[in-house]
Amino acid sequence: MSPLLHLSGLGLLAYLAAPVAAQTFTACNPLNTTNCPVDIALGTNHTYDLTTSAAGDTWNTTAGTIDYRLAGAEFTMTSRGDAPTIQSNYYIFGGEVEVWMKAATGQGVVSSIVLQSDDLDEVDWELIGGNNTHVMTNYFGKGNTTSYDRAVWHPIDKPQENFHNYTTRWTKEQIEWFVDGASVRVLKYGEANGGKNFPQTPMQVKVGIWAGGDKDNDKDTIEWAGGETDYGKGPYTMWVRSVRVTDFSRGSEYSYGDMTGSWDSIKIKPGNSTIAEELNAPPPMTASQRWNKLSPGAKIGVGSAVGASCVTMIVLAAFYCIRQRRAGRRERAIADQEFEKETSELMVYRQRMAKGGFAMSSREV
Questions:
Q1: CA–CA distance from 274 to each of 39, 142, 243, 256, 314 (Å)?
Q2: Active-site hit among 96, 98, 126, 223
Q3: What is the pLDDT of residues 148-180, one digit of tens each?
């Protein structure tokens, strides 16, 4: 039984109130430099059905491997250092992210859905492997961890045994979290330290599993994760059935107009997103579909070419057969001649034997 279930009411409250730090990082922070790369926009909406195929080229897999099965994507942590995660190769600027997920079991094991920007704005879902009654929502603005009063825990039915729908809807005015279609939390812009800590810059989507209870983590994080992770009791697996991502903005890329990290400072480059073009491209046509798209004249031309090819093949086949038959006749004639020669020699031999032509003298004996 999980240690969490042994806690008293006050102990449970203390556990739920334990601080947790932002878990992500950034390769280039636009608050510190104006030379960061632009962010490729999604610029559309798309649903990834992970029961039928892998996440695809618009996602990057890090810190482990992911197996795709009929039940969905399998994120498995088998040993220390594993943290299999998919991270979108695009950004959304305002939008909605919906994930159907079954969390992993295990003390200190954390299943996460994270939206995170280059300047460390962050919106989270966290499910603790040892807690089968609550899910946590959280947010950070510009990586500010001076206080830990942003996390809220919400009742949920056995998230390690059942798939649940976790949805985040993010606009300039507010962030709203939903569980199975029901709103569980709303954060207004002004409620986040007057807007200073409100996530408001383009964000990537990350879904993965990690060891909050790893022995090298700080004491508070291990406590928040429910205790130290015992890798020997693994493997620990999180399942994801599908991911739906909607970008409320339309453009090809996003960039920071200055170093303030405000919503209004973000520039949207007009045009079609390369990601959107890739996702919305029609599938390759089948042979039947290509044939049906041909004009009548083209079909006649193709038919004539095919017919001519067939005739050519028939002629070549007939020529080959005739040639082989002729060669066969020549070979048969040679064989017959050899047979007649051998038969003739055998008859002569028998005649000589009958006349004693091969009798041996007494001297030879």
A1: 12, 28, 20, 20, 50
A2: 126
A3: 789 999 999 999 999 999 999 999 999 999 999
130's tokens: 């040892």
Query: How large is the greatest C-alpha to C-alpha distance in the chain, in angstroms?
Result: 136
CA distances from 338 to 235, 327, 333 (A): 78, 17, 9
Residue-wise pLDDT tens digits, 67-94: 999 999 999 999 999 999 999 999 999 9
Residue 122 appears among annotated catalytic residues: yes
Q: Which of 235, 239, 248, 102 is nearest to 180 (CA)?
A: 102
Q: Using the structure block, give the residue that is written with the tokens 């057969």.
A: 321
Residue 356: both structure tokens together: 């004693």
- Which residue shows structure tokens 């339309």? 250
Q: What's the rounded Cα separation, in Å, for the pair 284 and 44?
A: 21
CA nearest neighbour of 255 among 268, 243, 238, 264? 268
Catalytic site residue from 98, 122, 223, 253: 122
